[in-house]
Amino acid sequence: MEYLEFELPIKELEEQLDKCQIIGQESDVDVTETCKQIEKKLAETKKEIYKNLTAWQRVQLSRHPNRPYTLDHINALCGESFLELHGDRNVKDDKAMIGGLGKIGDQSYMFIGQQKGFNTKTRQYRNFGMSNPEGYRKALRLMKSAEKFGIPVVTLIDTPGAYPGLEAEERGQGEAIARNILEMTRLKVPIITVIIGEGASGGALGIGVGDKVLMLENTWYSVISPESCSSILWRSWEYKEQAAEALKLTAKDMKRMKLVDQIVKEPLGGAHTDKEKTFLAVKDAIVKSYEELKNLSPKELVKQRMDKYADMGVYKD
Amino acid sequence: MAWFKRKDKGIQTSTEEKKDTPKGLWYKSPTGKIIDTKELEQNFYVSPEDGYHVRIGSREYFEILFDDNKFRELDANLGSRDPLKFEDTKKYPERLKAAQAKTKLKDAVRTAVGKSMGKDLVIACMDFTFIGGSMGSVVGEKIARAADYALKKKIPFMIISKSGGARMMEAAYSLMQLAKTSAKLAQLAEAKIPYISLCTDPTTGGTTASFAMLGDINIAEPGALIGFAGPRVVRDTTGQELPDGFQTSEFLLEHGFLDFISHRKDLKHKINLYIDLIKNQPLRS
């Protein structure tokens, strides 16, 4: 397990606990009481730390290297029933954007999401979860296919942004994202969106227009990453923590601003500390959301979505 | 010492009279792996050592995909005519007759309906052995009629492509089969009947410019040649050396044209899994 800087007190206590247990096993000294005390302290420390997370700390948790990624979620949700589908039928199969059909219970869903890698090699293979236009076009193709057959769409968002590359621009990164946003506003099947990690800007919204938009507790979603914001507005990367606060990018903030619909609670310490529990919470949230949406006619569904997005924004009249 | 030593002298059998080893006991794959044909058959006609997918025809695909090899063939008697009185090194009718005699097939596609994993499926499967799996009026009409059948009965539809392209002997009639089959698939799409396109070795020319690339999912067998213009034509026209693996299934997957590549042994399971998922019906296992 890897620890973030603010988690170091936890690391220390966990190491102490390990040592204590080893001593107990290897000698006749009764350590039960000592171990208990450390455990208690550990629980308190965890509570203390995770209760008062700053925005920047949540950003760090959302990028935790042990955090479950899109395919981890899908495999946990669907098991053997997941059938991955590839390609935009145009130029490429984008490895940073995955998709396919799978079942939760008896219901089929079309899953779409950005995929990150878990080591240097796979991170490169997945382009760090940054899609090219072909990724967005693949996502749209799959959504259209789901719409054709009346299958609800679930998108899982985890991206540091759409890929800012030369070829991405040549092939129309902006156009691809714009097209997706437009098409998603009028898709005739339910769309459930879950932000499972990073939700960076247009790269996230390109698969993120939904009837229900859910955010895992320790994720962020905004118009820009705190680092880039800092570098643009403060002219230095040093102010990322301030930027994170200022952007109001946490799940709690986004819910309060009514820009997302619901927060999905994570286990204490973040999604990666108890993946099974996280998967169950996500599954539960998806199934409940679908229950609320499934009886709406396509017309009602689109109207409701339309109204929701038309309502966003703050201004003086 | 040689393993086989010729004892008799002065043997001069003419080529015509030479006896081959009994046909069909062994199969040698392009990488040189040798396999007993019985074993090959049991392994879905895939060479077990190198995974080479041997070219097979409608007979074998029907056997692989239909439960207990039970199916009803559709329009089995549709046959070609010779509207252009076409003649190259051979007259077209003669070529047809020769192909029919050699392959025991009526033309380059067979269409059938049967149960696959317990549910109805309509399959149109091309036969490359019949004039290179070329698409003329008969192929177009049989595919169109099979699509009609799938439409009427609301049964998922699958085309297994294995073709060199359009049939030159029927010239522009052949070309128009691209439009005819594509139009039928559009009707199928409007009725929301799932259509699966399987590209096998080779899927080239007119087939890729029509039904082979129009599936709700396009899938392929490993290592198949799939492309519009054949590699030789591309090389000769452009003068460019072609990259390794150009126009293989893997190349197409990388370039976004295939949903996935399936080993032949997984084919039946995977297409039925797709059908269950997209139709939102319980999974068959």
Automatic annotation (TrEMBL), chain A:
<dbReference type="InterPro" id="IPR029045">
    <property type="entry name" value="ClpP/crotonase-like_dom_sf"/>
</dbReference>
<dbReference type="GO" id="GO:0003989">
    <property type="term" value="F:acetyl-CoA carboxylase activity"/>
</dbReference>
<keyword id="KW-0276">Fatty acid metabolism</keyword>
<keyword id="KW-0963">Cytoplasm</keyword>
<keyword id="KW-0275">Fatty acid biosynthesis</keyword>
<keyword id="KW-0067">ATP-binding</keyword>
<keyword id="KW-0444">Lipid biosynthesis</keyword>
<keyword id="KW-0808">Transferase</keyword>
<protein>
    <recommendedName>
        <fullName>Acetyl-coenzyme A carboxylase carboxyl transferase subunit alpha</fullName>
        <ecNumber>2.1.3.15</ecNumber>
    </recommendedName>
</protein>
<comment type="subunit">
    <text>Acetyl-CoA carboxylase is a heterohexamer composed of biotin carboxyl carrier protein (AccB), biotin carboxylase (AccC) and two subunits each of ACCase subunit alpha (AccA) and ACCase subunit beta (AccD).</text>
</comment>
<dbReference type="Pfam" id="PF03255">
    <property type="entry name" value="ACCA"/>
</dbReference>
<comment type="similarity">
    <text>Belongs to the AccA family.</text>
</comment>
<dbReference type="InterPro" id="IPR001095">
    <property type="entry name" value="Acetyl_CoA_COase_a_su"/>
</dbReference>
<dbReference type="InterPro" id="IPR011763">
    <property type="entry name" value="COA_CT_C"/>
</dbReference>
<keyword id="KW-0443">Lipid metabolism</keyword>
<keyword id="KW-0436">Ligase</keyword>
<keyword id="KW-0547">Nucleotide-binding</keyword>
<comment type="pathway">
    <text>Lipid metabolism; malonyl-CoA biosynthesis; malonyl-CoA from acetyl-CoA: step 1/1.</text>
</comment>
<comment type="function">
    <text>Component of the acetyl coenzyme A carboxylase (ACC) complex. First, biotin carboxylase catalyzes the carboxylation of biotin on its carrier protein (BCCP) and then the CO(2) group is transferred by the carboxyltransferase to acetyl-CoA to form malonyl-CoA.</text>
</comment>
<feature type="domain" description="CoA carboxyltransferase C-terminal">
    <location>
        <begin position="37"/>
        <end position="292"/>
    </location>
</feature>
UniProtKB/TrEMBL annotation, chain B:
<comment type="subunit">
    <text>Acetyl-CoA carboxylase is a heterohexamer composed of biotin carboxyl carrier protein (AccB), biotin carboxylase (AccC) and two subunits each of ACCase subunit alpha (AccA) and ACCase subunit beta (AccD).</text>
</comment>
<dbReference type="GO" id="GO:0003989">
    <property type="term" value="F:acetyl-CoA carboxylase activity"/>
</dbReference>
<dbReference type="InterPro" id="IPR029045">
    <property type="entry name" value="ClpP/crotonase-like_dom_sf"/>
</dbReference>
<dbReference type="InterPro" id="IPR034733">
    <property type="entry name" value="AcCoA_carboxyl_beta"/>
</dbReference>
<protein>
    <recommendedName>
        <fullName>Acetyl-coenzyme A carboxylase carboxyl transferase subunit beta</fullName>
        <ecNumber>2.1.3.15</ecNumber>
    </recommendedName>
</protein>
<keyword id="KW-0808">Transferase</keyword>
<comment type="similarity">
    <text>Belongs to the AccD/PCCB family.</text>
</comment>
<keyword id="KW-0436">Ligase</keyword>
<keyword id="KW-0547">Nucleotide-binding</keyword>
<keyword id="KW-0276">Fatty acid metabolism</keyword>
<dbReference type="InterPro" id="IPR000438">
    <property type="entry name" value="Acetyl_CoA_COase_Trfase_b_su"/>
</dbReference>
<keyword id="KW-0067">ATP-binding</keyword>
<keyword id="KW-0963">Cytoplasm</keyword>
<feature type="domain" description="CoA carboxyltransferase N-terminal">
    <location>
        <begin position="24"/>
        <end position="285"/>
    </location>
</feature>
<dbReference type="Pfam" id="PF01039">
    <property type="entry name" value="Carboxyl_trans"/>
</dbReference>
<comment type="function">
    <text>Component of the acetyl coenzyme A carboxylase (ACC) complex. Biotin carboxylase (BC) catalyzes the carboxylation of biotin on its carrier protein (BCCP) and then the CO(2) group is transferred by the transcarboxylase to acetyl-CoA to form malonyl-CoA.</text>
</comment>
<dbReference type="InterPro" id="IPR011762">
    <property type="entry name" value="COA_CT_N"/>
</dbReference>
<comment type="pathway">
    <text>Lipid metabolism; malonyl-CoA biosynthesis; malonyl-CoA from acetyl-CoA: step 1/1.</text>
</comment>
<keyword id="KW-0275">Fatty acid biosynthesis</keyword>
<keyword id="KW-0444">Lipid biosynthesis</keyword>
<feature type="region of interest" description="Disordered">
    <location>
        <begin position="1"/>
        <end position="23"/>
    </location>
</feature>
<keyword id="KW-0443">Lipid metabolism</keyword>
